[in-house]
Design a protein that fits this description.
This protein has 380 residues and is an all-alpha fold. It has a domain of 107 residues. The chain has 14 helices and no strands. It comes from Rhizopogon vinicolor AM-OR11-026. One of its GO terms (cellular component) is membrane.
Length: 380
């Protein structure tokens, strides 16, 4: 078996370079040189990865996202702040810059490995917590969650294996809107269920076999019932893996322009800066997937900021008219959010799929996935 380790190296080398640079605690102008060095490592890894891609569109795109996140983190943690002086773990008393170099490096690795700041003073708000009390109950809950999501993953896998549109990105993109919507939902839902099942099993194993606190391993995603506005979807329900640098970019830009905190100018500057930063992160993923289509992901994220702006205007008008939040306004909100993603997601997924197949990728790597248990039962 020919094992290609280059994708793994390309995914891990940029974060390692960034962690080393942060651990040196460089001031100006050396921090600028260090940031340029990390950018060069990111660019080199993207170039190397072009000839060693896995061929799985979703995985290649994810590796590109990892590289892009590292580049954006470099701007944040090498140019805008000095992490060793700013960040602290919850139980930490002294500043990390006082530690010996090797201890600093270990500290930086822990910092970078927790993009949501779990166990740190900058921990992202609204992270889901486990309702069960005992470790045994939590482990059982996680196992049930993993099984439930694996069942849905298995059903989705069976459907896609037996549907011709998932064998060809061109066929996938050429479907009528309604059928393309169903296909996109199944495609995303199957990957989502696979990820949740894997994450739940890993956390169950860690919690049952180590002394790790369960709440130090929260779910990747928040509660779906919180997503009755697009703002809440992106701020609460969707993963918050980019928030560590996305939020500071917006705050720095707001401060530079001179908007006061709490004003509309401040709020919307942060909103648009955040989504632009998110789009910029996805540029690396675009470059990995297909260099000829760099920037194809960016419009999707700009549209989200525009939709939130429109949404805020409608909510403000409703409040001025005396409307109060009820269960029915939330139902209307869910309809709005679902409708919005029906309009925007299919084109985004289709663009990624077509770009990926142009460079030899596949939409769904069936050859690497297990046989469908659902299919076996049906054919038994």
């Amino acid at each position: 078996m020919n094992l290609n380790l280059l994708p793994l190296i390309c995914a891990q080398l940029p974060p390692l370079a960034l962690q080393f640079a942060i651990s040196l605690d460089l001031g100006a102008p050396w921090n600028v040189a260090a940031c340029a060095g990390v950018f060069y490592v990111c660019w080199t890894c993207i170039q190397l990865f072009q000839n060693a891609k896995t061929g799985m569109i979703f995985l290649d795109y994810s590796i590109g996202m990892e590289i892009g996140s590292t580049a954006m983190d470099a701007i944040h943690m090498l140019l805008l702040i000095r992490p060793l002086h700013v960040f602290r773990q919850l139980k930490q008393t002294d500043s990390a810059d006082k530690l010996p170099w090797f201890e600093r490096f270990k500290w930086v690795r822990e910092l970078c490995s927790s993009p949501r700041g779990i166990g740190w003073h900058h921990q992202v708000k609204n992270l889901p917590q486990y309702s069960a009390k005992s470790r045994t109950e939590i482990v059982l809950t996680l196992i049930v969650k993993a099984v439930k999501h694996y069942v849905w993953f298995d059903i989705g896998l069976y459907y896609m294996r037996n549907n011709a549109v998932f064998q060809s990105p061109a066929a996938f993109a050429s479907q009528m809107l309604f059928r393309r919507l169903i296909s996109c939902s199944l495609f995303l839902g199957t990957y989502f269920c696979m990820g949740i099942a894997a994450h739940s099993l890993i956390v169950a194993l860690v919690v049952s076999c180590t002394s790790a606190e369960p709440n130090s391993w929260p779910s990747v995603f928040g509660k779906w019932e919180d997503a009755y506005t697009i703002r809440r979807f992106w701020g609460r329900t969707w993963h918050q893996m980019l928030r560590r640098y996305v939020a500071p970019f917006g705050k720095r830009l707001t401060s530079f322009i001179g908007f006061k905190s709490g004003t509309n100018g401040s709020s919307y500057t942060q909103l648009y800066a955040g989504f632009i930063a998110s789009g910029a992160t996805h540029l690396a993923a675009d470059a990995v997937l297909n260099p000829a289509h760099i920037g194809m992901s960016v419009p999707f994220f700009i549209y989200q900021a525009l939709a939130i702006t429109f949404e805020d205007m409608v909510i403000a008008a409703a409040h001025r008219a005396g409307m109060k939040e009820t269960i029915w306004t939330r139902v209307l909100g869910y309809v709005w959010v679902i409708s919005w993603f029906i309009v925007t997601v299919p084109d985004y997924i289709s663009a990624l799929s077509l770009a990926g197949v142009e460079t030899g990728g596949v939409v769904m790597p069936f050859q690497y996935l297990p046989p469908s248990l659902f299919g076996i039962l049906i054919n038994f």
